[in-house]
Amino acid sequence: MANESVKIVSNFLTAEIAPHGAELRSLVDSEGRQLMTDADPAYWTGHAPVLFPIVGRVNNDRYRQDGVEYEIPKHGFARRSHFEIVESHPASVLFRLTDSPATRPHYPFAFALEMRFMLHERTLSMTATVRNTGSVPMLASFGFHPAFAWPLPFGGTKEDHVVRFEHKEPGALKEISRDGLIAAEERATPVVGDTIALKDSLFSRDALVWDTLHSRALRYGVPGQPGLSIAFPDTDRLGLWMKPGARYLCIEPWAGIADPEHYDGEFRAKPGVFEVAPGDERSFRMTVTVG
């Protein structure tokens, strides 16, 4: 039972979330249409990993904090950790991960990471709360990484789908190096005004990464068809990612980013790291509204 997904429901949506990684694994509408990835093992079996306490990679998968070196995998350890179910109701569930002998060799801080999922009518709300349960300032990053069906099950081909941002986004993107770090050179934006016309070739050089984003919301889908309206009011970075040929699009609001190439500074000076005072907390919200 401990590893079984928890199901929450509204009048319009059903979501399933696994305690392993507090990972959203399914989002289905009232007509039985699956809005998440098909998790085809030929491409990627993830669904919606939780990125904590880092986003992306650190250089050589190692970082220094107060002169001590720690090894940590890409996107951190939360996605591979078992979360406790703290509360469970028909339309909501709350998961919690705390520091333990398994986390401390990789991350020296005392913490609680809570993931709350809630359905109301056509909207799924996800709230991550990072709490410092220790006696020293805590350093971290956080990111969402949900993979939505591409194409969505409302009609239209993959090439008919677009991402339309809340505002115009003329700025250049970050380039991902072969090592999964942030390269020195930037990448020309594929956004025309406020819209990206989606196609596999956009992702031939890995993810599209915005280090500075004006928008805090976007719409994903086929113009004129039902789609997904996605809001992320607490994060100022964004990744879009898929593996060419796959049938998903990851829409990833981030409070954090991978190391720049050759970065050799302390963790506290790493781009995208935020600080939480002892006894304090910081929350990040993401909502997905269908229709």
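Above is the first protein from milestone M3; the second protein from the same milestone is given next.
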Amino acid sequence: MTRPVAVIGAGPFGLSTAAHLRARGIPVRVFGDPMVSWRAHMPEGMLLKSTPAASNLDCPQPGHTLADYCDAAGIRRLVTDEDIIPVETFIAYGEWFQQKLLPGLERVRVVSVDRAKSGGFELKLDSGELFTARAVVVATGLSGLAHLPAELAGAVADGPAATGPVSHSSQHHDLGRFVGKELIVVGAGQSALETAALAGEAGARVRVVARGSGRVAFGAAPWEQPKLRPGSPFGRAWSLWALSYYPHPYRYLPEATRHYLVRRVLGPLGAWWLRERFQSAVRVREVERVVTTEAPDGTPVLTVRTLDGRTERLTADHVIAATGYRVALAAMDFLGHELRTRLAVSRGTPRLGPGYVSSVPGLYFTGLPAASSYGPVMRFVCGTEFASPRLAHHLAAAHG
């Protein structure tokens, strides 16, 4: 019997990759809870920053776009750059995609992945099953990668927690729990600004603390963007166009350049449609940096250095760190020790070759863990258009 390919993760990248593999006739087993990060770790009422054209899960067969889902669900089509996508609609689209193309998805957790003595990889599931796969695709998305900077970690010895003094934005689905509370949100990106706006609209008293040189800013509306520059899923600019459609040479850039671009391109910027809501519900405190965070009696206190060089202490009932995600192999604890020690890494992220293969033949990474090798487009759903067909092609050629 032909050994299958194991795809670990059932978010956009996992589902898209599995659809491409299956279309090539490659047996696939997909593990995970479909769209779980979007369903459990995004705030209720959130709207996607990406446009409809940038929110499709890439698929080799026609008829599986977001617009196709809208038609099938009998809801208004979301197709223009001015159409805004509710997160609930996007989650339902991903689940519809899975049900149509990957009905055999297995809602179990992969406990461990190790090299098999007979070749390939041995996987253990939390159901107790052991089986051998010829290749493994890691598409675990943001799971376990929430980043809490050191200057915010002093108040939480055991890590951020929704019920503690400091949490991460990924730990809140219902922001209504902060009604009547003083809330500080640290960050200046879309996650910070939308979390703050939603909490303010729910009845919290909210301040955004924006650190460093990045001031709170919002993107231009579609009709305000320059027409003479090439379009991309992220806006009109030559650099965005190149990074979106030609990520092939990205992995040949110097290491420092690659990591800098992943952090800074499409960095802290709110969506054009959020500006008015944000400004009517949220106060902003721009500071040079957060120095430390303490919670001696359970109430968080931020010590900040202001833009004019003074030191101030800011208090609140709770602090939400909307400080993004960082890839770390240590968070992928299902990978066996031998695999992790054999993986070539670049600042803690897997170093990938052509077709998204790692230094361990047969072990592939896609989505955010691939960003340091293939660029910022891998942080977004539209990255499936580039990644999924190329990964499937390489895997089929190498393990066909």
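Note on the second protein: The chain is about 25% helix and 20% strand.
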